Amino acid sequence: MIVTLASTPPVAASSPLRLVADIGGTHARFGLVEGPGLSLTHVQRLRTEDHPHLIDAVRAYLTTLPTAVGRPVLACLAVAAPLDGDEVRFINHPWRFSRDAVQRELGLDSLILLNDFEALALALPHLAGTDLRSHGAAPGQAANPSRTMAVVGPGTGLGVAGLMHTSAGWRAIPGEGGHVTLAACDDFEAEVLAAARRELAHVSAERLLSGIGLPLLHRAVATASGRSIDVAMGAQAILQQGIDCASGGSGDADCARTLAVFCAMLGTVAGNVALTLGARGGLYIGGGIVPRMADLFFASSFRERFESKGRYRDYMRAIPTALIVDPQAALTGAAAALETVVATADQA
Questions:
Q1: pTM attached to this predicted model
Q2: Using the 8-state DSSP alphabet, how is residue 95 labeled?
Q3: Most buried by CB count within 10 Å: which residue of 24, 75, 114, 314?
Q4: Which CATH number fits domain 4-119+328-347: 1.10.1530.10, 3.30.420.40, 3.40.190.10, 3.60.15.10?
């Protein structure tokens, strides 16, 4: 597990109250772990735009807790930002904060910061049953559970992380894989990328395969199809109109094709991640966008594109893929990180 610890060491305690959070570009989820294990209580979701600073969102959550609960002394915040040093800046949100200042202002004995997809990766061994929807057999059933796993997730941005099993247990592999350069797999996608490059110098995977990217993908798909978009549409409208059309309703055909291209390109990116990390234990799809597509995603060419790696098709065919449908999964990963910290402190 790769974590960023605060300057003060963790305090050993039998069951300290722990705060966990999953903070993205649009929503911040908070919860408490009130004793040993990973059971979450008092889970709430807040909109980030309703709070000027991260510390304001944390305080807003804490004020909702019953007085009898007390206040947490340990915390793990999983944030949609690269972590390097004391200052943290979100990529797809104006928030920025000092790790040490947040720990001090909240009166915490220990504060762990994780990349949000690092936390999601740490949750993977704990997901099963209704937490997942799989293409065929579930990852835990189809593969050695100690094999490397990976997660790719379109939300406000596009997150990527891995999870490797070591002699010391699971170790998360954080990164910024959502910002790799996006490649085309056929002539139509080449036209889509050419249209996108007329707006952006660098078209990364996140620039098209995310909430912030869907409007650009929509415009680029229309351009590649020989049409133009008269009225700009936001990501939520594109999703709803595309889902309605694909399900036989009165939605928009350009939006439906946009979602089809989205799923295909996501399959290519997910396959690249699985190959790069050797994620033979499973490739998981997280984030808030794909769960909204539901049946449309499973009927798409995602899996075909995932497997379409030439001589490595058989290798890819053996890697299970699953959609994470538990919206609290990253909180579970954050709780697992804190469990490790407490266990280590108790052994010291």
A1: 0.90
A2: -
A3: 114
A4: 3.30.420.40
